[in-house]
């Protein structure tokens, strides 16, 4: 199937993680307030969809704004953000049938608070925010945004539509500790709680250690475990995630060779809530 897409509008910023820039409107005595805004709109068409229902034409769009601030606190700074997102789908709905074209949604997207030490050795934050592990192969925010297309199956996984633009990226709740001392080693400890009905409100915790070389690249080792899944909700396809353990080894960089870029990731997945032994490598 060939899908022809046309981006018809690009609002401020880009729809990729971390691309929006803050426009500061207040700065005094070590306190700064600013506002981030990003968005995207697209028009899509296909001669055939995935359901054998013929061609479809649909449109998706979102606008995302975040009030951000920081102030001196102890031997470091306190920071936070509060933001909302408006998104929707129009037309026939997407080619996969996940949206109907009648989705409209305005929702809280960001609500987080954090503290980072002077020099950036420690950074702890919690609340509703985005998180990405490495280049995003395993975790790249909480991006799946289904609409009303699956209501006919008797399940409610509607997250506002805009499926192809994947507008919503924040986890419902998080606690993230970043450690970045002088030298090549850095690490993260994280707890993530999804409120995405497609992911059945999956909760997981993990650790990540990275060796970073400006000359050669980055090597990373991660381990995580699924702590809880709301079984029987959504599509029910992730009931067996509960208790799953995932280990990842990855790397990317030039190895010091000009015009060379290499990237790899190996993932081992074990366990889960099932009578059948689940082991997988990727």
How many DSSP helices?
Answer: 0
The whole-number mean of residue pLDDT values reads 88
Could you name the ranges where pLDDT drops below 50 across 5 or more consecutive residues? 1-19
Biggest pleated-sheet summary: 14 strands, antiparallel
Overall number of strands: 14
What is the chain-wise order of helices and strands? EEEEEEEEEEEEEE
Principal-axes shape call: globular
What percent strand? Answer: over 45%
Describe the oligomeric state of these chains in a short phrase. Answer: single chain
Q: How far apart are the termini?
A: 27 Å
Q: What class do helices, strands and sheet pairing give? A: mainly beta
Computed over alpha carbons, the radius of gyration is 21 Å
Helix percent band: under 10%
Give a written overview of the molecule:
The protein is mainly β. It contains no helices and 14 strands. Strands 1, 2, 3, 4, 5, 6, 7, 8, 9, 10, 11, 12, 13 and 14 form a 14-stranded antiparallel β-sheet that branches. The protein is globular. It starts with a strand and ends with a strand.
Outline of this structure?
Helix content is 0%, strand content 51%.
Task: Explain the layout of strands and helices.
Blueprint: E1 3-9, E2 22-28, E3 31-46, E4 56-72, E5 76-91, E6 104-117, E7 122-128, E8 173-179, E9 185-193, E10 203-213, E11 217-228, E12 245-253, E13 262-270, E14 279-281
Antiparallel strand pairs: 1-3, 2-3, 3-4, 4-5, 5-6, 6-7, 7-8, 8-9, 9-10, 10-11, 11-12, 12-13, 13-14
């Amino acid at each position: 199937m060939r899908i022809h897409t046309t981006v018809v509008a690009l609002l401020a910023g880009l729809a990729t993680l971390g691309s929006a820039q803050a426009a500061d409107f207040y700065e005094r005595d070590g306190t700064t307030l600013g506002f981030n805004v990003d968005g995207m709109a697209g028009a899509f068409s296909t001669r055939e969809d995935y359901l054998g229902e013929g061609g479809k034409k649909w449109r998706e769009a979102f606008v995302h704004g975040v009030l951000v601030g920081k102030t001196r606190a102890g031997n470091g700074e306190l920071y936070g953000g509060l933001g909302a997102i408006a998104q929707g789908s129009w037309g026939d709905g997407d080619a996969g049938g996940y949206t109907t074209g009648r989705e409209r949604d305005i929702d809280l997207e960001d609500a987080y608070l954090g503290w980072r030490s002077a020099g950036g050795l420690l950074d702890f934050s919690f609340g509703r925010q985005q998180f990405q592990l490495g280049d995003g192969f395993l975790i790249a925010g909480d991006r799946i945004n289904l609409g009303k297309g699956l209501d006919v199956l008797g399940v409610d996984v509607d997250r506002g539509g805009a499926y192809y633009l994947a507008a919503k990226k924040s986890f419902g709740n998080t606690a993230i500790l970043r450690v970045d001392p002088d030298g090549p080693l850095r690490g993260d400890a994280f707890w993530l709680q999804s409120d995405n009905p497609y992911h059945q409100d999956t909760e997981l915790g993990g650790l990540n250690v990275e060796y970073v070389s400006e000359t050669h690249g980055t090597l990373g080792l991660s381990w995580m475990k699924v702590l809880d899944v709301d079984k029987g909700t959504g599509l029910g396809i992730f009931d067996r995630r509960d208790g799953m353990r995932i280990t990842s080894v990855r790397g990317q960089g030039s190895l010091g060779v000009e015009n060379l870029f290499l990237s790899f990731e190996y993932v081992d997945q074990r366990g889960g809530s099932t009578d059948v032994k689940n082991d997988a490598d990727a």
